TrEMBL record:
It comes from the Bacteria. The keyword Translocase does not apply. GO terms for biological process: L-histidine catabolic process to glutamate and formamide; L-histidine catabolic process to glutamate and formate. Its EC number is 4.3.1.3. It catalyses: L-histidine = trans-urocanate + NH4(+). Belongs to the PAL/histidase family. GO terms for cellular component: cytoplasm. It is an enzyme of class 4 (lyase). It holds the Pfam family Lyase_aromatic. The lineage of its organism: Bacteria, Bacillati, Actinomycetota, Actinomycetes, Micrococcales. It is found in: Cytoplasm. This is Histidine ammonia-lyase. PROSITE patterns: PAL_HISTIDASE.
Amino acid sequence: MLVGVGPLDPADVVAVAREGVPVALAPDARDAVAASRAVVDRLAASEEPVYGVSTGFGALATRHIAPADRARLQRSLIRSHAAGTGPRVEDEVVRALMLLRLSTLATGRTGVRLETADAYAALLSSGLVPVVHEHGSLGCSGDLAPLAHCALALMGEGDVVDDGVVRPAGEAFVEHGLTPVELGEKEGLALINGTDGMLGMLVLALHDLDRLADAADLAAAMSVEGQLGTDRVFAADLQALRPQAGQAVSAAHLRALLAGSPIVASHRHGDGVVQDAYSLRCSPQVAGGLRDTIAHARTIAARELEAAIDNPSVLPDGRVESHGNFHGAPLAYVLDFLAIPVADVASMSERRTDRFLDVARNRGLPPFLADDPGVDSGLMIAQYTQAAIVSELKRLAVPASVDSIPSSALQEDHVSMGWSAARKLRRAVDGLARVLAIEVLTAARGIDLRAPLEPARATGAAIARLREVAPGPGPDRFLAPEIDGATGLVRSGALVAAAFAAAGIPTSSAAPTGTLDRNGATA
């Protein structure tokens, strides 16, 4: 994949992060990088003090650095800033943040040398992944410590992951034919002053949440069906009374997924139930709120993908100016914002699961959906697992971005904590997938126990796909592998794909919600 001057496509970020697609600089990027480097070379030869070129960093920016010491300045910057600690960050996150840093280098606004940008692309394409640690970034000035660990590897120092094994970078470079880089003026700063870790995790989360929003609709449809709920509340004219875009999409999904259901038809008249519980009746409003939050976050991510984050920046007229564009606040806010509906969608999912297991509320199903209640516990503890995850998701919904701890002798006296917001969102997205998987397992068993009544074509297709990893009702058995199998189907989108294909729902339904009109029809 070629990285040019323009913004990256989010799908390309996911491909490089998760599939290891190799990258290289596009011709326009090579020209832009060379032009901006000429500006830095000119300033490096002058007596004019320029931050990052001939001065120290942060609170030490008033210190003038002699030309003979400027290469050492860059090495010292990277070594001192590679100060992360704690567990190793996932490889996909490191690849994403490296691609995004390379994208900024490609804009020609950072002043790095062409050979440095090429070496960064080569490292990213090599399969080696710099070791980056969980703790170290305040989200301002960008993700300094995580990016410094990547730059340290570029210098042939520190550690990298090579086919799952942690090794010294210098040793791995020799075997992979890579040459360590000796950084020039400004290059150390250009390699670490960005919001790339936050943005990379946001792009990956948005990709996953598109699938999970659809999975939440499928799980809700299966629960409505299995608990003998009604689909009338999802009618387009009722939903149009409140023209929220995400709500319209989710309600349209529920109508399509439940269309033609013999179970729903069996109690449409005369069952005496006037209204379903909120967790069934209001699912489009809650899942739709997640969709709208995703749409907002995608707008912020798209703007950031167009950005050239560094400080100082090399401008087209040859000026090198300092600014505050590295501050992670815009990303931190949406990363925190997303964690809220993620927790709430999971909370509603857990409530639907609990209704299936309570003989007082499940409308004729056995307690805990057990084969022989008392001897068997059925899905009792699966709901405990859900509840434990939901409790954690509520804690993860507490915003990180409202905190700030001053640093660098009060030069950096307000920070975004965007990296922390991104890390907790990753955990929240994982938790939502697991919660939805348990609801799907529970709902499928409940629907099977309604036999001889048959489910809708779409929900039946989902159950058939699920049965490849989790058998139907029966005596108690080892549940953990079934939960993991269902989680894999939810996370990959395979379960939703089976249901949506049977319902005739386009696979592009996860596109921005503005593509649907207020009634949930394609505009």
